[in-house]
Amino acid sequence: MDGLFMQVLEGAFALPVVLYTTVGVFLGITVGAIPGLSGDMAIALLLPLIYKVSPAAALGMLMGIYKGSMFGGSISAISFGVPGTAAAAATVEDGYPAKLKGYPMQAMLTALYSSVTGDLLSTLLLVFVAVPMAKVALHFGPVEFFALYVFALMMISLLVVGEMKKGIAAAAIGLFIGTIGMDPMMGSVRLSFGISSLRGGIPLIPLLVGVFAVSELMIQFGRECASRSAKKVAEDAKKAEDLGIYDPAKDRMSLKIYRSTFKATLIGSGMGTFIGALPGAGSSLAAFMSYGLARKMSRKPEEFGTGTLEGVAAPEAGNSATAGASLIPLFAFGIPGSATAALFGAALIMQGINPGPMMIEENKVIIYTLFVIIIYATFINLVLSHGLIPLYAKLAQIKACYLVPTVFALALLGTFASRNSLFDVWVLLAAGVLGIYLRKNDFPLGPLVLGFIVGPGAEKALRQALLMGRGEWMFLLKSPIALGFYGLCILSLLLIHFSVKKKLVEED
Amino acid sequence: METAKSNERNTISFLRNSSKVVSLLLMAAAAFFFSFTVTGKWSAGAGIGARLFPQLSLILIFLSGAAIFSGRGETGNKKHSEVTPLRAISFMGLAVLYFFGVLRLGLAVGTFLYLTAIFFYFGRDGGMIRKVLIPAFGITLFIWALFTYFAQIVLPPALLF
Description:
By secondary structure, chain A is mainly alpha-helical. Chain A has 22 helices and 2 strands. A two-stranded antiparallel ribbon of chain A has the order 1-2. The relative contact order of chain B is 0.09. At the A-B interface, helix 8, strand 2, helix 9, helix 19 and helix 20 of A face helix 2, helix 3, helix 4, helix 5 and helix 6 of B.
């Protein structure tokens, strides 16, 4: 035990690991602060570049990006009313009015402290819950695992923002794309259409980078160079002029202010952790739900929307609290609960670690090391963000016409360099086209990626279960745990169906 | 005459309903690929074969497409209307040109030419040197250093460095 403890500490605090994590946090804050770039995109772009780095350093860097971007998004949300990331959209509601009222620093520091608090609480939950849950999952067989996969895919499709049917369709497309290539049981080649490069299946990295990054870059490209953020900056400068001289003495953060927002921070942390642990519910949903709940439970709900700091604290704690919690299903069962967790799953596979219930047992040192890194990355985020806030408030002014070609060049070269394969470049571009088509038609991309990643595991579990049951489909319902998962699926489907119906009736 | 006009109006309104069009596409694609899963010479395996899971996922695509089709639907592409087909094709065309530029001319030269072309298109009004050449050179240097120096990734040799 002592040996393991020392190994973990040595691994987590090795100089390269700390440096990579710090660079990751720095990159995360940077991409988060620039509207149009996101943590997911940065993680997807870096995946091809990190395979040469040690697992602890590589995963530390990606974790740093994730944590940094969660807070980074709030910088431009508060400074210009333009959320740097989708997760920071709820922060605009009160963050930007707070800035216009003359309290930008208080708003940003409230966002930072709430973000760090929410993140830390959810990380601790991850550390203490993932290991016991993984032990329970060790008793699962193919029948239970297939039911769990069905439950995860169902939740992913149901909880996405937008139409439920489109979520299910996106997950099914991901599942189908995942079946192209070698069949996981018998090794026969499926749906390759005579293309030899397809025999190994659709490569993961080009698909991820294409769907997430290229489609987003295409949207940015489509917008005029004078983007919304640039216009907002100009509008904001005018408004700031109208406000008169900004008084920094009145805009100081204090312990009293932090205490006054602590209740909202706790509400956000709890809501974010709960939503983050559910497969499919993303950080933006957590932020909006935290904001709504904090307003309901506030003593002064009428002040929400006018620049109250509670309205900044709740969504920031909410979106950051999903960071650790969304990794629980990945670490415990090997099923990524969100698009970001799916990217982490991909990174783990690239580092030779197979996500699943045996993952913690088989890779104790690296997983515990990662837990330590996740905790200290939160503090690195706190220190770095503190220093970078004044400087980064100007980052949103970077023009899209410089940003888009640069990031696209990185995406293209990084994808090609990961396997030196021209085929990967075509997959990247095709995935970009698919991504933009789906986005234009309001299909969520998260379920597609998750379907693609969990598809082979789900297929294996289904076929093993049916083999055990000698082809009898009723065998899938013989386990009480599996029945429980199917029951939860039906229950959530009905709940969401009726809540949508009620909403439509109200709208009519 | 009136009926013909009404039919035409209905067709136009149907085509403008992006959800309906997408759902039809989904169903058609699912049916198309399903035919391959039926005729494909894949190992049957013991109990169930390799074709089961692709078929299940295609059935799910078809059913969700049908559900979207039967739903309310919405007219017009409200989301990301800035991405027109022409812009998407230009973006992809530039990407292909850039990539083959890198393979033929080398990372540094290919990247510099690509960035210069794009910056020239977008930002020439601010001055050729300040808004086009200097940013293109700086970003090329950054990308070159990132790939060849920091990440030490070997890209295939090309005509130029």
